[in-house]
Structures are given as C-alpha cells and as structure tokens.
Automatic annotation (TrEMBL):
InterPro entries: Ankyrin_rpt (IPR002110), Ankyrin_rpt-contain_sf (IPR036770)
Biological classification of the source: Bacteria, Bacillati, Actinomycetota, Actinomycetes, Streptosporangiales
Protein name: Ankyrin repeat domain-containing protein
Amino acid sequence: MEWSRAHHAVEHEDLPALRDLLDDGHDVQDSDMHGWSLLHHAIDVEIDGHQQTGEPLHVDVTAYLLTRGADPLAPSRRHGTPLQMAENRGHWLATELIQTWLARGSKPK
C-alpha cells in the first residue's frame, strides 16, 4: 500500500506520531490512493479494532482529527463522507461525535 506517514500513524492509532506529522505541516485532509481521508481511515480502524478484539468502540483518532480540522463532510470517491461511513458501518460513537461537532458549528480548517 502506498500510504503517507500520516495514514500509517492512523492505521496504528499512534496519536503522538500523528500529532508530530500534523504539527510539521502534513495536510489533515490527506487522502490515500482510494480517496480515503485520514478521518475515513480513522473511522475504519476504530471499527475494525472493535470488531476484531471485542474491546469497546472508541473515537480517539477521530476526535483528534476533528480538533485538527479534518472535514467530516468531505466525500471520498466511493465511500461517501466520514459521517456517512460512520453511520453506514455502525460506528455510533463517531456518528454522535461528528453530529455534535457539526451542531456546535465547528468548521474544518
């Protein structure tokens, strides 16, 4: 796979590495070869982790990316927006977080 370093950080839920990359100027709207943004990728990783391990669903990376300006309404080529992806794949926690984020008037940077 040809992922950026930021996508690798998201894949491994490595928030310190992701923070450093974004602080150094990596684009929070970065998309991979399939058109997934970092936020799409985070939602996918959080769902997969929950399904594969049975551990509670969480939104650590999703929440961090939102605070850094990721756009929850930016569509990918095939998977809709991150909000739609969370809704369609049953990531209720990300869905609630994004809807609350948007209701408060938070805007992507």
